[in-house]
Amino acid sequence: MYIGYYDHTNSSTIHTYKKTTFQADRHSKRYRTKWLRLLVIGVLMLAAFTSGAIIHAYAGDKSVLDPNTYSKVIVTSGDTLWRIADEYAPEHEDIRHYLNDLMKLNKLKSSTIQAGDVLLLPKRD
């Protein structure tokens, strides 16, 4: 919209320009569309990361326990992990390595075991 008037005291003409509502709406719509696009992209990225984390957290253990790969031993009173590792470790293998594998396989955080526990023993060839 164009507004102009002539001031008799000043010989210059003052022109005032005002955006039409169409131009203002177009700018506002473009601005909203830009931010809406960014918001949608952000939500999609968040959903992708969240679903990936959930799938990773609830996915099965990759080391599937095959009964042909592992033997079982039931812990009796007085048994220790060291004694079990010494008894079942192959002659050529260091007991500490076998004990470490035994703890990892059974997901033990310490060497404390109790009578009645069932331990899986890794077979060695």
Automatic annotation (TrEMBL):
Designated gene of the protein? yneA
Enumerate the spans annotated as LysM domain: 71-121
Positions of transmembrane segments? 35-59
Record's keyword terms, sorted: Cell cycle, Cell division, Membrane, Transmembrane, Transmembrane helix
| Pfam families membership | LysM
**Which GO terms of type biological process are on file?**
cell division
The protein's name is Cell division suppressor protein YneA
